[in-house]
Amino acid sequence: MARSKTSKKWLDEHVNDPYVKKAKADGYRSRASYKLIELNEKDKLFRPGNIVMDLGSAPGGWSQIVAPLVGERGGVIASDILHMDSIIGVTFIQGDFTDEAVYAQILSTLNGQKADVVMSDMSPNLSGVATTDQYSSIYLVELALDMARNVLTPGGSFCAKVFQGVGYEEYVKDVRTSFDKVVVRKPAASRPRSREVYIVGKGFKR
C-alpha cells in the first residue's frame, strides 16, 4: 500500500530527527528521554530514594532516565496499556490504570507508601479529528492529575504532557490549586510545530 504524503512526511521527519538519531546513539528507548532530561535539569524533579510513578510509560524512555537517578533506595512504578521491556529498578504494570484491577495493583505496589513524583507522557490514540483528539488528551491528563492527588506525598511533584487547545487553560488552573509552584515548559526535543507542552507542579498540597 502506498504511503500517504502525510505519513511519508512524518517518516522522513522521524528518520532525520536529530533526537531520534541521538537516542539510538545514546542507547535511549525514546527521543522523549531528552525532554525529561531537560525538565529535570530545570526543575530538579528527582532525588535518590524517591518513589516515582510513570504513567503511559512504554517504551520506557522516561523510566530509563529516572531509575538510575532514584537509585536502589528509590524505585519507579511504571504503567502502560502497551508492553514495556524490563528495566532494572522499575516495576512495570501492564494495563489501563483507569481499570479498578490495574489501579489496585499500582496501589499495592506502593505498599502503603506515597509517591514523591507522578509523571505522565501519555498521548491518546489519534483519530485525526482535532477536536476529538484534544478532548481525549485533556481527559488523559486529567486522569493523571487525579492519580497524583491520590498518591503523592505532601510536597511532591507532578509532570505531565498536555496539548494546548480546548480545555488547556482550565487544566492549568486546576493544577495550580494543588501545587505551590506550577510552570509550563517546552523542551528543545519537542517538535516546534507540536502543540505539546509539559506542565510541572512542585510542592503538592493536599
From TrEMBL:
Keyword annotations of the record: Cytoplasm, Methyltransferase, rRNA processing, S-adenosyl-L-methionine, Transferase
Alphabetized GO MF terms: rRNA (uridine-2'-O-)-methyltransferase activity
Pfam families, A to Z: FtsJ
Any one GO cellular component localisation term in the record: cytoplasm
Active site, renumbered: 161
Reactions mediated catalytically: uridine(2552) in 23S rRNA + S-adenosyl-L-methionine = 2'-O-methyluridine(2552) in 23S rRNA + S-adenosyl-L-homocysteine + H(+)
Function of the protein: Specifically methylates the uridine in position 2552 of 23S rRNA at the 2'-O position of the ribose in the fully assembled 50S ribosomal subunit.
Protein family membership: Belongs to the class I-like SAM-binding methyltransferase superfamily. RNA methyltransferase RlmE family.
Protein name: Ribosomal RNA large subunit methyltransferase E
